[in-house]
Each structure stands twice: as structure tokens, then as C-alpha cells.
Amino acid sequence: MKNESDDRIVYSINVADIQEVASQVLERRLSKEEIALVEESVGDYIDWFQAIENSICEHITLPIARTRFSNRSKGA
Asked: Best exposed site among 9, 57, 58, 65 by fewest CB in 10 Å?
């Protein structure tokens, strides 16, 4: 059953975040065209499932989740 709060955004990346990384990596800001290119593909490089699973396992104290996370970390 879907809850109204299920559509709430939990994390997002904005252009300022992209420009901050560009400034650190390239030592310059990106053009509008370059931002569009990064914007189209940045999500392809984020392992959303793993990030969410790691956060759940860090904060939720369910024995099953802890065991699963511990086993995955050890290559199981």
C-alpha cells in the first residue's frame, strides 16, 4: 500500500553540486552544454540500491539485515 510520503524526495543532486565537483576536478565551471551531458548520465554511475542498503543496515537494527550486510561485505 502506497503512502503519501512515498513520493517525498530523499536525496538529490543539483547543478551547484555538479559545478562544485567540476571546480575541484577541472579547476573550472562547466558550460550549460557540459552540464546537460553530465545531467543525462550521472544517475548511471550511482549504485542506488547499494547506497540505500548500506544506509538501512547502518541505521536499522534488524538481525537479518545486519547478517546480510556483514556477509556481503565479506564477499559471501
From this structure: 9
Domain span including residue 74: 47-76
CA–CA distance, 23 with 53 (Å, rounded to integer): 30
Give burial (CB, 10 Å; 0-12/13-18/19+) of 18: middle
Are 14 and 37 found together in one domain? yes
Q: What is the pLDDT of residues 36-76, one digit of tens each?
A: 999 999 999 999 999 999 999 999 976 665 556 666 655 54
Please tell me whether residues 32 and 3 are part of one structural domain: yes
What does the pLDDT read at residue 1?
74
